[in-house]
Amino acid sequence: MTTRELLLDQAELLFARSSVAGVTTREITEAADQRNTSAISYHFGSRHGLLLAVLSRRGGPVDDHRGELRSQLPSLPTLKDLVACLVRPYCDLLATTQGRAYLRIVAQLRGRFAAWRVESDSETTKHLARILDEIESKPTVSLALRHERVLGLIMLLTGACAERARRIEDGDELFTTETEFVNNLIEMCAGVVMV
Hints:
This protein is mainly α. It has a single domain (57-193), classed as Tetracycline Repressor, domain 2 (Orthogonal Bundle), CATH 1.10.357. The chain has helices at residues 3-17, 25-31, 39-44, 47-71, 79-92, 97-108, 116-119, 122-136, 143-170, 178-193. Helix 4 (47-71) packs across helix 5 (79-92) and helix 5 (79-92) runs antiparallel to helix 8 (122-136). The protein is globular. It starts with a helix and ends with a helix.
């Protein structure tokens, strides 16, 4: 495993278990058994560059899967079908330790969701953006309310998955099966954006 991969792995776990804001670059380099404290700067440019690399490593494949699901829908899909394209690939991350870490990291970034289209890496969010645009285009309420509802959908999706990830990691009881959780989350997220 390369130094870059070690740093990504350790950052991902530390960010998820502690907090994105609270983990120091020294803690990450020590966890990755790196003596050179400038390893993060060398490989990622900055701590923020490391965070973006952590996010794109899992986010890219999720976005690709969303695009695949969307391509299988008719040209005028239902709102629930569009929401399922967002929810199912995201929930698939619950199956692995690394995926669960990613889910917990994304939930910590909730304060930045309103600006996600400006700050996101367009290569790892292009399908997400397209699907959200389709959801927002449903002209049942004002554009401002549609923006608010999409933000609510994102917060519900990320929060619910992060909590389930935490429960799995901590060995807590799960109240629903995986299938029940995913299907219920699709219904709840669709409900947020419907009139």
